[in-house]
Write a structure and sequence with these properties.
- By secondary structure, the protein is of the alpha/beta class.
- The protein has a single domain (about 5-215), classed as Rossmann fold, CATH 3.40.50.300.
- The protein contains seven helices and eight strands, in the order E-H-E-H-E-H-E-H-H-E-H-E-H-E-E.
- An eight-stranded parallel sheet has the order 3-2-4-1-5-6-7-8, with helices on both faces.
- Helix 4 packs parallel to helix 6 (about 135-150).
């Protein structure tokens, strides 16, 4: 994940877990010593959005950019000038959490002027245990639809194999094998896979040829507590 710097756009299907990936990637890179900011452009899903973790991220020194407050629950392509501004003047890592499927990706096309001339890395998050991305053909179709809607090219993939609380270690290995195949079929690099902090001690990291991003779940139901992120030590790079 060391190569993920500059502007990184996170896309994927509904239920892929892209917002959870965005949040945890922001924290991971902040811990590595980067200046990190994250923009919430998910104007489609009213339930699991980056803004739900705003307080936690802000406490860690991660800037969170949101659409204007009066549009926070609006499923409309309303863009804050701040979002266009951060694209023109990105931080060491500027993460953009876009909406799900091609519908959520449409908002990216509205930012074409801001993206022009910028180096942008757009990552497709894949959960092979979700409908529509449980086959390689489904993943390829999702890629095509998102690229068409956003008018941008996907440049890498992330494997986020999970069934939330039902996830077992075998699911992590099977999910990895799936996204490796997708990587080969799509000619897109596999940037990293994710593993929950609960399962991390139980897996053999040598099985994987890519980095692993530990996931401490933040977007949880009201009856559960989110994983607590420790504040990074400024003396550790």
């Amino acid at each position: 994940m060391k190569n993920l710097t500059g502007i990184v756009v996170i896309v994927g299907s509904y239920g892929s877990g892209k917002t959870e990936v965005s949040i945890n990637l922001a924290v991971d890179r902040k811990r590595a010593g980067l200046d990190v900011e994250i923009a919430d452009l998910d104007l489609v899903n009213p339930y699991f959005r980056t803004r739900e973790a705003k307080k936690t991220l802000s406490e860690l020194g991660i800037d969170v950019i949101l659409p204007p407050e009066k549009y926070l629950q609006a499923d409309l392509p309303i863009l804050s000038p701040m979002i266009a501004g951060l694209i023109r003047r990105p931080s060491q890592l500027t993460l953009i959490d876009a909406g799900g499927d091609h519908v959520g990706a449409i908002v990216l096309a509205a930012l074409a002027d801001s993206f022009r001339g910028k180096s942008v890395h757009m990552i497709q998050v894949v959960n092979p245990f979700r409908p529509f991305t449980d086959t390689i053909l489904g993943c390829l179709k999702m890629r095509e639809e998102i690229e068409k809607a956003s008018k941008m090219k996907i440049t890498g993939i992330v494997g986020n194999a999970n069934m939330i609380d039902e996830t077992k270690t075998d699911d992590i290995y099977r999910g990895y094998d799936f996204v490796r195949t997708f990587s080969d079929e799509s000619n897109l690099p596999l940037e990293f896979i994710t593993v929950s902090v609960e399962l991390l001690p139980k897996i053999n990291a040598e099985y994987f040829s890519c980095p692993i991003l530990p996931i401490g779940r933040q977007l949880v139901p009201p009856w559960k507590k989110a994983e607590r992120f420790r504040t990074p030590n400024p003396n550790i790079s």
